[in-house]
Design brief:
Blueprint (H helix, E strand, L loop, with lengths): L5 E7 L5 E7 L7 E10 L2 H8 L19 E8 L11 E4 L2 E2 L5 H4 L17 E2 L11 E5 L3 E3 L6 H20 L7 E5 L3 H12 L4 E6 L2 H9 L4 E4 L5 H8 L5 E6 L5 H9 E9 L11 H6 L3 E4 L7 H10 L9 E6 L3 H10 L6 E5 L3
Parallel strand pairs: 10-11, 10-13, 11-12, 13-14, 14-15, 16-17
Antiparallel strand pairs: 1-2, 3-4, 3-8, 3-17, 4-5, 5-9, 6-7
Helix pairs in contact: 3-4, 3-9, 6-7
Length: 359
């Protein structure tokens, strides 16, 4: 593949500002793969990065940093040690690459790398601690890429990075979902994918809780047995009534809303499990005594992990995940500021906002 010397890339400016400029195409090391990005999408973490809250309000110098951690594309070049991929392969990224030398990484927990942010020791998170995919080209460590089957297009592949977070959440619970009552709080991209994954994993009953009727209706299409508008009724009472008074065996909190943690704890059955998937904007207050007195296990996940994106790709490759209807808006990379505006305002019920980077 003929790789140019420069590329179009979106870079952070002052807090809240992002613009496209021309940058040199990144060089790759022996273990790296140069990806020509075709599609990329926005998520809530990108909004925090744009505002610089992600960096504690400081962050990189304006004009130097390229965000973006959800993207797919084609292999444009490979490092000298790479034989897992060849030029022309279609791939999707996983954001996290641990140092692979600390205790957490060696036990498989690379999203909780003890050397987080220490590039000298090999840690990277695309678009967060190293340059990301809101650009025509991006460098990835070979371990962070998954080959796409012919049945999965670039749009679907990008959404599967979000599905990887859901897969990781279910694995983190350490239980079979078959025959369980599962409640999902928050019908955003993660929650709507969680409904589908829960159904594919054999849940007996899936409840979806939210406040937006359009998204709840989409969850119903995806297989939710019960949808609950929490503005119209008590969601805990509704889920308990639907489960014979028991509550949900598993609750996935995907909204990132502070009060939802307490809702999740009270929605879970005695001895049930709650996993926090969403990121919260501020400290949360919850009735942990209720969790202790009822033996409720509380777990967390940070993005995708444990090879979960590859499993999501496998599920989608067999036609068992619906991702098309999640993509509601499209913008060219050069209109990325407008894309962020649509996403943050949830304009026209924006769910996944996609960037068309290259053809």
């Amino acid at each position: 593949m003929n790789v140019p010397e420069t590329m179009v890339a979106a870079v952070l400016g002052e807090p809240g500002v992002i613009e496209t400029v021309r940058k040199p195409v990144p060089e790759i090391g022996p273990d790296d793969v140069l990806v020509r990005v075709h599609r990329a999408s926005l998520c809530g973490t990108d909004v925090k990065i744009l505002s610089r809250k992600f960096f504690g309000g400081v962050g990189p110098e304006p004009g130097t940093f390229i965000p973006g951690h959800e993207y797919s594309g084609v292999v444009a070049a490979v490092g000298s040690s790479v034989d897992e991929f060849v030029v022309g392969d279609r791939v999707v990224t996983e954001a996290h690459r641990g140092c692979m030398r600390c205790a957490n990484c060696l036990s498989g927990g690379y999203t909780n790398c003890l050397n987080y942010g220490v590039a000298a020791k090999g840690h990277r998170v695309q678009g967060m601690t190293v340059q990301g995919g809101f650009a025509e080209y991006v460098s990835n460590h070979v371990s962070t890429l998954t080959l796409l089957p012919e049945t999965v297009d670039f749009d679907s592949a990008v959404v599967l990075t979000t599905a990887g977070t859901v897969m990781h959440a279910f694995q983190r619970l350490g239980v079979l979902a078959v025959g369980t009552n599962i409640a999902v709080i928050g019908p955003g991209p993660i929650g709507l994918l969680a409904v589908q994954v829960a159904r594919e994993l054999g849940a007996a009953r899936v409840s979806l809780i939210g406040t937006r009727e359009g998204r709840l209706a989409l969850g119903k299409q995806y297989g939710a047995d019960q949808v609950v508008n929490s503005r119209e009724c008590d969601p805990v009472a509704a889920v308990r009534a639907a489960t014979g008074g028991r509550g949900a065996d598993i609750v996935l909190e995907c909204s990132g809303a502070g009060p939802a943690v307490d809702t999740a704890l009270h929605m879970a059955t005695r001895g049930g499990k709650v996993v926090l998937v969403g990121f919260f904007g501020q400290p949360v207050t919850a009735d942990l005594n209720h969790a202790v007195m009822n033996g409720i296990t509380l777990a967390t996940v940070r993005g995708e992990g444990a090879g979960s994106v590859a499993r999501a790709v496998s599920l989608a490759g067999s036609g068992r995940l619906n991702t098309d209807s999640l993509v509601t808006h499209r913008f060219p990379l050069t209109d990325i500021a407008a894309a962020f505006d649509a996403y943050t305002r949830r304009a026209d019920n924006a769910i996944k906002v996609m960037l068309d980077v290259t053809d």
